[in-house]
Amino acid sequence: MLFSTIATSAMLFAAAIASPLAIRDNDDQPRICQNRLNKVRGDGCIRYVRGFDVTGVVTEVDLTFPQIRDNCDCIQACLDRPTTCAAYVYKFSTAASVASGHRTCTLYSQFNLPADVNIEINLNSTLNKNINAAEITMMGNNPQLGAPVPQAFRDFPTNTIPDNDAVSGEVWQLSNGETLC
């Protein structure tokens, strides 16, 4: 009797722990870019945010229309750079992008820093690799200052009309060749 009680309790505990993990990929966040991304586990991305830019500024790569036509092209551009891209944002980021009606795609090697975390990169260090030092300096992004995750807007640079169709998120390159996004 004692063994059966312990076994039943263990099974219920295991089921309670496993259930949230099993439904994690099937929560209320709909997948985007289904059947369009290479080597993505689960056929599409569910780890993304609409209307906000969760990316950082280090190792910035900017891509524009017509190379990038939609959010899936932007995510694929990040997937195509597995050794330098960990985050992407597809939003209006310049006055030219607003005027053309085409969002830009910016790729980063890390995510938005929390408000109380700042990093400064030694741009002259020989240890730096693929950091785009010239761009970082030109855009005044050194040091990179932490801040709350910024909202995306449709009317750069006035930033008065929220852009709920902007998409940003992370890309995790797994050692088995698959990707989670």
TrEMBL record:
Superkingdom of origin organism: Eukaryota
Segment forming the signal sequence: 1-18
Name of the molecule in the record: Apple domain-containing protein
Keyword annotations of the record: Signal
